């Protein structure tokens, strides 16, 4: 659809949800007595300005023309059923929705008052839920600036990048059960950390992490799955990417430093990962396709199975804002990056993921890894707040609580991301989390288990 397409529902030019976007989410009506939603009434909707459009109602009205079983897909309490239908169904649904919600045209619903009353709700009147049943979660490490900063912290500048990093999309298998929706509180984790970080021989202590950090990421949902042993080419991989969300992969840096050798992060990552509620379809991002900030050629060139003829990312501004506990609103922006800073593309990530025969399932979540920029706010524009981010982005937004690199209890972290079009924005909405104190573990002492 052309960028001049307009909806008959008024949308502010700075709203992240114009008709050019139409991100998918799961909602339910709020109960009359609270802000909690009725889980038995969960179904699929799209965001349009300040509204949520109920796709189950539109499906029952026949606007999708039988291109797929829209009633079953959109009456579902997750997006998994719709995602599993594949690109043809995704394209048909998007075309039908844009035609129905446009300001003019033969298929516009602008004059159908009764149907609009049934399917259009204020976003403030609904509760949002996790958009998918997430069976598996993989977190990649795809930004060179962040990988260099991380490696410098752990191994020193001379060995910042391991030899394999420029040859394959490095990743670890995360914990799907601790992926939460934006707005859910984030409990500071307890864990082991080095008694003396400069002298590991002193052994560990156990207690609340003292170096809690955020990570600014973009994640994508797998649409159609694959069979065990099936391998995807780069071009095939593109057709398995349904859409994107913002991801804050919260990290306990002191726990991570102690535990990550030899198998990588474990408890330092598994305690919580937050995602934004609206899944932006890839078709909405395609107009903003752009070369990566490092150029259009990967050096050294990847092996043949990872060669991406359409190598590049998206010109999508990414921001981190922090509001310390008790500080006046609004949160202060402490870092600004761009999705174009990714070295490895989504197609490369997914092709590599399946290259050993690992099956994919609808709803699998794939994180980009922290996205930091070589220049920006601050310089470098760190996608995380502590030393691992390379810039200490969190140090600029602490109000009266002093200069620091890591998060304190009560801090609220807000991730934002958007692509700027001509008179409109395609965005994700906010991904928000507030840090709660660690649980009191009375059976533990600071120097070990008693």
TrEMBL record:
Q: Which UniProt keywords apply?
A: Calcium, Hydrolase, Magnesium, Metal-binding, Phenylalanine catabolism, Tyrosine catabolism
Pathway per the UniProt entry: Amino-acid degradation; L-phenylalanine degradation; acetoacetate and fumarate from L-phenylalanine: step 6/6
The catalytic activity, as recorded, is: 4-fumarylacetoacetate + H2O = acetoacetate + fumarate + H(+)
Recorded coiled-coil stretches: none
Annotated Ca(2+) binding lies at 139, 215, 217, 249
| Cofactor(s) named in the record | Mg(2+); Ca(2+)
UniProt-recorded Gene Ontology molecular function terms: fumarylacetoacetase activity; metal ion binding
Q: What is its EC number?
A: 3.7.1.2
Domain of life, per lineage = Eukaryota
Q: Which Pfam families match?
A: FAA_hydrolase, FAA_hydrolase_N
Q: Which residue numbers delimit the Fumarylacetoacetase N-terminal domain?
A: 20-131
Protein's UniProt keywords contain Magnesium? yes
GO terms for biological process, alphabetical? homogentisate catabolic process; L-phenylalanine catabolic process; L-tyrosine catabolic process
Q: Which NCBIfam families would you find in this protein's record?
A: fum_ac_acetase
Give the family, as the similarity comment puts it: Belongs to the FAH family.
Q: What is this protein called?
A: Fumarylacetoacetase
Q: Which organism is it from?
A: Tribonema minus
């Amino acid at each position: 659809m052309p960028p001049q397409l307009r909806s008959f529902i008024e949308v502010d030019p700075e709203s992240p949800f114009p008709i050019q976007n139409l991100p998918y989410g799961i909602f339910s009506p709020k109960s009359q007595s609270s802000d909690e939603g009725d889980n038995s009434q969960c179904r699929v909707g799209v965001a349009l300005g300040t509204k949520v459009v109920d796709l189950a109602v539109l499906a029952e009205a026949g606007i999708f023309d039988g291109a797929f079983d829209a009633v079953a897909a959109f009456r579902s309490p997750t997006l998994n059923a719709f995602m599993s239908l594949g690109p043809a169904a995704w394209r048909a649904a998007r075309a039908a929705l844009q035609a129905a919600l446009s300001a003019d045209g033969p298929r516009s619903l602008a004059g159908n008052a009764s149907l609009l009353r049934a399917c259009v709700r204020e976003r403030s009147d609904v509760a949002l839920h996790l958009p998918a049943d997430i069976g598996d979660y993989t977190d990649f490490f795809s930004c060179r600036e962040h990988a260099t900063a991380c490696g410098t912290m752990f191994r020193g500048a001379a060995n910042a990048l391991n030899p394999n990093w420029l040859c394959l999309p490095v990743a670890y298998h995360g914990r799907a059960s601790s992926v939460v929706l934006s707005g859910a509180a984030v409990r500071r984790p307890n864990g082991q950390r080095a008694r003396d970080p400069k002298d590991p021989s002193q052994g560990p202590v156990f207690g609340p992490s003292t170096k809690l950090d955020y990570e600014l990421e973009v994640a994508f949902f797998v649409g159609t799955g694959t069979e065990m042993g099936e391998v995807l080419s780069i071009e095939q991989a593109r057709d398995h990417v349904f859409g994107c969300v913002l991801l804050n992969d919260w990290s306990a840096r002191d726990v991570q430093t102690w535990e990550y050798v030899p198998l990588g992060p474990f408890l330092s990552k598994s305690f919580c990962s937050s995602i934004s509620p609206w899944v932006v379809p890839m078709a909405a991002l395609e107009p903003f396709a752009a070369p990566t900030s490092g150029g259009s050629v990967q050096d050294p060139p990847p092996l043949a199975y990872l060669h991406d003829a359409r190598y590049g990312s998206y010109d999508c501004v990414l921001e981190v804002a922090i509001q310390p506990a008790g500080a006046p609103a609004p949160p202060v922006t402490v870092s600004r990056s761009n999705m174009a800073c990714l070295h490895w593309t989504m197609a490369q990530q997914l092709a590599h993921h399946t290259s050993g025969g690992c099956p994919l399932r609808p709803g699998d979540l794939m994180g980009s890894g922290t996205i930091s920029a070589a220049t920006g706010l601050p310089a470098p524009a760190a996608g995380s707040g502590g030393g691992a981010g390379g810039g200490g982005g969190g140090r600029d937004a602490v109000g009266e609580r002093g200069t620091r690199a890591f998060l304190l209890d009560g801090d609220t972290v807000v991730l934002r991301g958007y692509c700027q079009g001509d008179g409109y924005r395609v965005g994700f909405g906010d991904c928000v989390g507030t840090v709660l104190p660690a649980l009191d573990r009375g059976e533990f002492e600071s120097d070990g288990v008693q």
